[in-house]
Specification:
The structure is a homodimer. The radius of gyration of chain A is 15 Å and the shape is globular. By secondary structure, the first copy, chain A, is mainly α. Chain A has a single domain, classed as Cytochrome Bc1 Complex, Chain D, domain 2, CATH 1.10.760.10. In chain A, helix 2 crosses helix 6, helix 4 crosses helix 5 and helix 4 runs antiparallel to helix 6.
Chain lengths: 105, 105
């Protein structure tokens, strides 16, 4: 059943790619993200998205898209090009670890 | 001072484009966003970003980027193509009106 085995392998790789170290991500975020996205992932710069509590896979995917140029943003392109795969996964784990509460007006 | 006048006109247009109606946006969001992004903008589908509390200009810009194809996502392209400028501004006003609290682990 080669197809089943392949699917299993792909799943494992995908999971491994998202097993980030939140503590390491927190340190990196303080250096490269906090100035715009805030120390706790609530943005401080205008028109900048909050990252707190966003799904790990979503953050990692967007950072890779900025790095490759698939998603375009002048500042994020520069920042993402300086990040390794491990650093991206760590940042994703860190921002995802922040718990959000939403209050509807 | 034509340059100053132009700048003033651009600023006015930009402000007007973001003066969304949050109540109308809330109704629209219940129809087209909530199934993935949650009734209160906290996502319920996996790997889907939370939208609660995101800046108005950010949400509006991303929706227009999905609509034009500048930002690519299979589902969001279809959804954004069905939105008018007014609906985009209303959705942006609604999600921005939700207040967020972040708790660091």
């Amino acid at each position: 059943m080669p197809l089943v085995l392949l699917a299993g392998a792909a799943l494992t790789m995908s999971s491994a790619a998202q097993a980030g170290d939140a503590a390491a991500g927190r340190q990196k975020a303080a250096q490269v993200c906090a100035v715009c996205h805030g120390a706790n992932g609530l943005a401080v710069a205008p028109e900048t998205p909050n990252l707190a509590g966003e799904p790990e896979g979503y953050i990692a995917r967007q950072l890779r898209a900025f790095r490759s140029g698939k998603r375009q943003h002048e500042v994020m392109a520069v920042i993402a090009k300086g990040l390794s795969d491990e650093e991206i996964d760590n940042l994703a784990a860190w921002f995802n670890s922040i718990k959000l509460t939403a209050t509807v007006p």
